[in-house]
Structures are given as C-alpha cells and as structure tokens.
RNA sequence: GGCGCUAUCGUCUAGGGGUUAGGACGGAAGAUUCUCAAUCUUCAAACCCGGGUUCGAUUCCCGGUAGCGCUACCA
C-alpha cells in the first residue's frame, strides 16, 4: 500500500471520530455524511442499452458484497433516460443475468418513472443561477470543437445570456438544453462556493467545506475516492455539461445524481470510466444542496487486446448469459469476477460467497485495469460478428444464439474455479443440474441413471455442459463411429485386441455385473492371455465407450449393463475383423 | 489536442527503502492409477524506461513511454 492510499484510509478513520462531534441535525439530514454508514445504501445502475456483460456483473457483485458485508441495502436502478438507445431485449438480458447470479437486491427503481424529480432538481439549480438555457442547436459544438485546442467549455453567448432574454425565448417555444454553469475563476460568476485554504483534503473536508475551492489562479473541484484517493480537477477543464436535453429529458449526469441523493445512496461503487465524470457529479450535488456520497471507482475489465469489453469486438464471451449457457456455476463466475481488481490479500482464491462477503472491503480494490483472459473470437465467429453489425439485431440484445463450442474460449482461471466448484457439489446436487442439460440435448435419461453417472464424470468436466461429451456414450443406442485402430493396445496388434475382446466376451457373459467381480475377473484374465493389465483394459474401454479417454472401466461397465457391453464388444470385434468394411 | 487514471511472471495478484520478489491459473517434467481426469512433487516465468532522493531503489519523487478513461442535448 502506498503512502497516498494509507493517508486516505487514515483520514477515513479520522473522519469517523469526527462524526461524534457533528451537530445532531446534520446526522439526521438525508445525505448527512459520506463516510459514517452503519447501514450503507448502494446501487447498481445499468442502462438498458446492451446486454449484461461481465464488467457490469462485477460492479453489481462488488456493490452487493459491500452492502451485505455491512448489513446495508442493495438497490437496482435502471438508468433508462436514453430513450433512443434503450431496448427491451437489453432489459431482459440484464434481469436474466442478474437472476442467474442469484444474489438479489432489496429495492428497485426505474429512472424513467422519476423524471419529475430530475426536472425539479434541474430547475432548482437553474433558479439558483447555477444553470442556464443554451439555445444552441444540438451538435453545433462539434465543428467548433474540432479545431479547438484543449477542453471545450461552453457555447459563445449562451452562458452570458440575460435571464429575461432567456425566459422570453423559452416562452416563445424555442428549444434549449439546460447547462450547468461550471464556476470559472475569472469574472464575478454566480454560485461560486469556494473557500480559501483550510485543512488537508479528506471526505470530511469535502463534506464540511464544499468541493469547489480556490487555488492560486484557478478554481478546483475536489473529492476523495475510496479507491483512487484524493482527486482534484480545475474547473477550466470541465465544460458546461448538459442537465436537461432540449426534449426535456434529463441527462445521465443529472438523473444519476438526483436519484442518488433522493434514494439516499451512501456509496457509489462503479466503473472507473466515471472517475472524471465524478467532478461534474460533485458539482451537481453541491448545487442542488446535497452532500455527495462516498465514491469508489473500480478498475476496468478489459479484453486481452487491452480494449474495453464490447460485444461487437469480442463477441458473446463477455455476456453473462454465455457463461450461464456454457455451464458455469454462478458462484464460480462470481468468485472469478471478484478476483479481477480485488484481492483479499491473503492468497485465498477459491472462496465461497460467504467467505467473499466476509473478506470484502474497498481497501482491497486495485487501481489498474484487469484483463479477462478469454480467447479472441475465431475467424468464423468474427465473420458472423460482422454480419451481426449489418443485420438489425432481433435476439436478446443482439446476442448470437449459437454458442462457441468447447471450453477453450474462457479464461482458464474461470474454468478452474468452475471445475473446483463442480467437484465441491454433492453428487445429488450436481446430478440434478446435469439432468436437464442431457435432456435438453435430446437424451432420454432417468434421474436414477444420471445419479449413477454423475460420480463418473464429476472430476472430468470443467463446465456443466461438458457432460454432453463426457457421458454421451452412456445414452446413445449406437456408438458413433470411431477409429478401429484405437482398439489396438499399446505395443500390441490387431490379433492381441481380438484375443482380449474374445476373452472379455466370455467373461462378461457370465460374471456378476458389479465392480469387484468385474475387476477380479478381467484383471485375472490379463496374465492368462500373456498381456499387461493396460493392454487388457484398453480394447474393452474403447469397445464400450468408443474412445480411449473415459471414466474408470468397471464402474462404466456396471452402469452400461451386460447387454450393452456385450453388444458393443461384439461390434468392436466385427470392425476389427473387417476394418475396411 | 486537453484533462485524468494506471504500470510486478503469459494472465489474475501479494509485497515492499536492504526479500532467494510470494501465491494462483495456465505451461513443462515426474509420481500415482486400467486410460483420461483428479491428486501429489518439481521446474521455467515478472518489478516499463530514464533521471533524482538515499549508504542502498522494484518500492519514494520527477520526467518519458505505453495502455486505458473522460473530453455528447450516450451512459
């Protein structure tokens, strides 16, 4: 931990003690304090403009963990103020993903149902003179901006427009956007709340003195991030951002802050892509008369190529439902995601939800982006990805249904964690999860048989879906064709294979079909034939399973039953005798 | 372009003014087993670069570089 970080934490503690000297009325006000939260209120606020990807899922998880760790409240808020881009499919994808994660939340809101509140707050800021109408048509700033060096600040003439003139044009029905009047150092602007000097920065000071302070020659906005520490930005680098669009809809910044204040959110835990937006948010909170919440920004999740996760570039590997459909256990995905950008700092990695909840703290969060080490999409899927661009998407948020086959596209650590969790499941539990997968693939399978097979595949699958390739031979009537050469044992030949299978046939026809008798009889046959045990077992295994790599032989034979085994051995002998047929 | 954030094995990370820089996944080798898997053992693998500060920097400071983010009437 570096000095800066230590400082921030120490200050947090100092702030806590400070609290007890606070006036009582301040403790009762809705946003009384940004650090003293016996019962924190946190929110996950996705906007339904795309499917739920793993980065969003991690944000949800961290918020949830923080709330549960401290006995607080988890809130789901749909930030759906961008009517143009919202889709029902995206909304469905978000709920589908969150439902599968199975963590739950305590309260739920939709921004589109709270527009009155947003507007009320926007106009209250306007009434204080801290916002103004901008009649410049939308996007007119682009041309102006392109040639300009540095940050674009505001449209010429808009900010200075007299109130009477502004009111007159608005009354005449001229469209306008409402912009925040970011305090500027030069000129007697209204609403400057800065103070000079004072104690060192801290959440306590941010709350007590206001975030806008004078520095030599400029005005600066301050806030203290629980992860990134003290943040300062000159107002000269913050443009007069919009609060209300010309259609009257609130912008993200306004709606988010208004709701965070109204819902008494104590901690805003979100992606680092909002770190620089936070200066604007702090400004809004202050202008509206609210104390800002405590902010904690999370390092971003990026693809192996270093770019941020996106469906278009990286395909379905970034969608939570892809993990579900591939046979991840939700607890494994959660565990994996927690390890990206956060560490319990004690070398523990495979952890239960309960353990994660106990161990979680904002102090364990890193500051650098983490790579989700999935394999880049193959040429084929890239093709379909570019097709998906031209064809208007109709599926769930544009997700492509066909799943990339196999386990090789996922981060190996996620797979390992999933395999660990699968092995940790009780046989009955695992079996119950495997059953619907087999059935969905068209196999007729009884719960009893599934229960018999589960222990045989448990240590051989990394994803639930792997059961389809690991256990298929238990269910098929006819084994899919395999290379007859597989039947020939190591350092053996066709003759040896035939000899073994012949012997096996006679043994299988009479022996009691239980593990121990089978083991004894078949093992004893090897020396009789003058072959090694391995040479004895391989042809039989391949004959009944249709492949070299399979679960232990005797257990497999028992599950398959005498008839199927006999039939398959006979079949194998036939193909060996007539390999060309 | 402006502003901001970040930089330890391939990946996720621990650590920190003096260490054999630790763990995990993945990789390699071996043990074990009827194959595979699981399990166990072992091995390879990292402090972005340049300046300072210091007896001593991978760690602290500055600069560079690179990556990422923001710079919308998107979120």
Features:
mainly alpha; Rossmann fold; Glutamyl-tRNA Synthetase, domain 2; Helicase, Ruva Protein, domain 3; 4 domains; three-stranded parallel sheet; 24 helices; elongated; disordered N terminus; RNA-binding
Describe the structure.
This protein is mainly α and 581 residues long. The chain has four domains: 3-302, Rossmann fold, CATH 3.40.50; 311-424, Glutamyl-tRNA Synthetase, domain 2 (Orthogonal Bundle); 425-473, Orthogonal Bundle (Helicase, Ruva Protein, domain 3); 476-581, Arc Repressor Mutant, subunit A (Orthogonal Bundle). 45% of the residues lie in helices and 10% in strands. The chain has helices at residues 3-19, 24-28, 54-69, 88-101, 115-127, 141-147, 163-171, 203-209, 252-262, 278-287, 311-314, 320-326, 330-338, 353-359, 379-390, 412-424, 427-440, 447-457, 467-470, 494-510, 515-529, 533-545, 553-560, 562-577; strands at residues 41-44, 73-78, 107-110, 131-134, 177-180, 212-215, 218-225, 229-234, 242-244, 267-271, 294-298, 301-302, 370-371. The strands form five sheets. A three-stranded parallel β-sheet has the order 1-2-3. The protein has a three-stranded antiparallel β-sheet with strand order 4-5-9. A hairpin with a 3-residue loop joins strand 7 (218-225) and strand 8. It binds one RNA strand of 75 nucleotides through helix 6, strand 5, strand 8, strand 9 and helix 9.
Describe the protein's topology.
Elements: H1 3-19, H2 24-28, E1 41-44, H3 54-69, E2 73-78, H4 88-101, E3 107-110, H5 115-127, E4 131-134, H6 141-147, H7 163-171, E5 177-180, H8 203-209, E6 212-215, E7 218-225, E8 229-234, E9 242-244, H9 252-262, E10 267-271, H10 278-287, E11 294-298, E12 301-302, H11 311-314, H12 320-326, H13 330-338, H14 353-359, E13 370-371, H15 379-390, H16 412-424, H17 427-440, H18 447-457, H19 467-470, H20 494-510, H21 515-529, H22 533-545, H23 553-560, H24 562-577
Parallel strand pairs: 1-2, 2-3, 10-11, 12-13
Antiparallel strand pairs: 4-5, 5-9, 6-7, 7-8
Helix pairs in contact: 3-14, 5-9, 9-10, 13-16, 17-18, 20-21, 20-22, 20-24, 21-22, 21-23, 22-23, 22-24
The chain binds one RNA strand of 75 nucleotides through helix 6, strand 5, strand 8, strand 9 and helix 9.
